[in-house]
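Usage

Read records sequentially. Each one opens with the input sequence:
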Amino acid sequence: PSLETLVEKAKMLFKDTFGREASAGGAAPGRVNLIGEHTDYNLGFVFPMALPLVTVVVGAAAAEGANCRVKSFAGSGEDLAVEFGLDRTEPGEPAWANYFKGVVSHFHAAKLLPAFEAVIV
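and closes with the structure output:
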């Protein structure tokens, strides 16, 4: 699907899931290194390239409460959801959410980050 289609799908799923419009969003292409890992800064060769696959995230500050709620529709059709507090970002189950928690945990302005709700497509 096109990026526009994925963004519209994410916005619709956010509204269906959380009952309101998303206020922010972002998209990132997939990427693969065909030659080597960690070699580019060691004077070696690396050949990264973007893939036509895209991950889209839309979200908004939490309507109520102090927990972050994230729902992923990017998996194999399973219902993937996680809820965690901004002060509880240590790795755990479900494993797929550890990436999301790690980003939150290492956010450079963590004290300014509000609890949020997000959908991943």
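Summary fields computed downstream for this record:
- The helical segments are 3-18, 98-105.
- Residues 3-18 form the longest helix (16 residues).
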